[in-house]
Amino acid sequence: MKRRLRRLAVTAGSLALASATLAVPAQAATTSASSCPSGYLCGWSGTNETGSMMKTRADMPTMGSWDNRIRSFWNRTSSVSCLYTDQNYGGGGTFFGDEPGQGATGYSLDLDRTISSIKFVPNIRDCDATPYSEWYAEPAPKAAGFGDLNRDGRADLLSRDRSGRLWFVSGTGDGTLIGGGWNSMTALTRHGDLTGDGVEDLIARDSSGTLWLYPGYGDGKFGTRRSIGGGWKSMATITATGDINSDGRGDLLAHDSSGTLWFYPGTGHGTFGSRKSLGGGWNSMTALTAPGDLNGDGHGDLIARDTSGKLWLYPGTGRGTFGTRNLIGSGGWGQMSAFLSVGDVDGDGWLDLVAATQDGYENPDAGPTANQLRLYAGNGTGSLAKYRLLHQNWYDLNGGF
Description:
ATP/GTP-binding protein; signal; single chain
């Protein structure tokens, strides 16, 4: 139960979700903090909601007469509350973050008369880190045709947080808010230009099964969406692939609930032509991603993870089909929560694969490999190098794209 968290602050370059030393959960309030008005966070000068009470629903960079007086608290706002041991939301690495309807009411040595500032945020992550994943990519020696959303020569990332905000994260690590409400989308995918303007676009499916195209501007932003059509709810995966039939237009793959993989050829106008079946049996695959030309033959390829945790490369033929698959990962890939194909990340001229392990915030039993963003470098021959840890900051997020 994630009632009270104590983390070390995440510092630049360090992924201190080691931070995530989780403290022993505080005791639940016996009265649900009934004396605290709805919509407020309340603190008491005594343990177990005793003594004098303060209340706030606004950020407090300083606490005034309540500085270092709180001994118990309860959050009845609709936001996550962050209570810090120093003024201005600092504190040598310690904070208390609580979801709405939670708090700490019993005695805690860390909490006892240590709180000097309070703020309210959408997610626990916002208490001590950026709301988007840490990210950095080296300048690529040649354009991959996808991955670089702002045309600065570096692979970029889209990061969605738990409250549904979508962030553009440039290859230099800077994050810009694209907008909110993206939790209504059950699939997001991107890989190159779909509208014929030379700029990478974004595709998203909503909960009703409508597929939407968000045309890219080439600066990390997207234009007004337009509907591609309905009926996509039956698709287990939707994957933009870039041009895999050699007609110069970006294409799409989707596999349906029966396990059939469908190829949707792009028209270059933000729509797709008549679909073609690429065969059945794809229900055994739990993730698909299009890394581009991974084996150096000039055709875009496909990577798939199966239910046993193996990773397979399906080499593209350049005709909208794939050749005999090759095993490129013998096991252990089941722990990955996301696969990101965004081009050349390490700047060596070869296309790469990025993968994120399980979120330790959502999966407390994920173990020491949780929250990792890993780079699996390509070598142009269709295989991947042993991973290099990029960051250990992949927590309290809702996917990367």
